[in-house]
Amino acid sequence: MIIDNVDNLNKLSSDLEEKGFYAELVININTSIGDHVMKIVIILIWITCILSFSILILTSLKRIQEKKKDFAILKTIGYSNNNIMSLLYMNLELLV
Questions:
Q1: pLDDT score of 41
Q2: What is the pLDDT of residues 52-91, one digit of tens each?
Q3: Which residue, 60, 55, 69, 67, is CA-closest to 92?
Q4: At a CB cut-off of 8 Å and minimum separation 6, what does 46 contact?
Q5: Please, which residues have CB within 8 angstroms of residue 22's CB and are 6 or more apart in sequence?
Q6: What pLDDT band is residue 94 in, cutting at 50, 70 and 90?
Q7: Contact by Cβ (8 Å): 11, 25
Q8: I need a labelling partner for 15 at 20 to 30 A (CA). Which of 4, 30, 65, 68 fits?
């Protein structure tokens, strides 16, 4: 039997016991709404992480694209690819 209001619980229990039935009071909490909210929050967290990672990659690629002329100048001076990458890495570390 389902009761629509908690205030009616004691009345119904006493009515059932008068009729000879055993009445046990049990409160059942519905957690399905909380589960749905958690799923939505987890999906939003994943979307935020993916967007953040994408923005990080795009800004790094843009910075590399902007510095291609500098890399060419360094290359003509005699810097190796490893030296140029280490300079780029140090510049990225300073930004973070």
A1: 97
A2: 999 989 988 888 888 888 888 988 999 898 988 888 778 7
A3: 60
A4: none
A5: 16
A6: low
A7: no
A8: 30
Query: 64: closest CA among 48, 47, 88?
Result: 88
Q: What is the DSSP letter of 41?
A: H
Report the distance separating Cα 71 and Cα 67, nearest Å: 6
Orientation of helix 32-66 relative to helix 81-95, angle to 10°: 130
First to last CA, the chain: 61
| pTM listed for this prediction | 0.52
Domains in the chain: how many in total?
A: 1
58-85 core/surface letters (b: 16 or more CB in 10 A; e: else): eeeeeeeeebeeebeebeeeeeeeeebe
Is there a domain that residue 14 lies in?
Answer: no
pLDDT per position as a tens digit, 17-54: 888 888 777 777 778 888 999 999 999 999 999 999 99
| Inside any domain, residue 22 | no
**Residue 7 lies inside a defined structural domain of this protein:** no
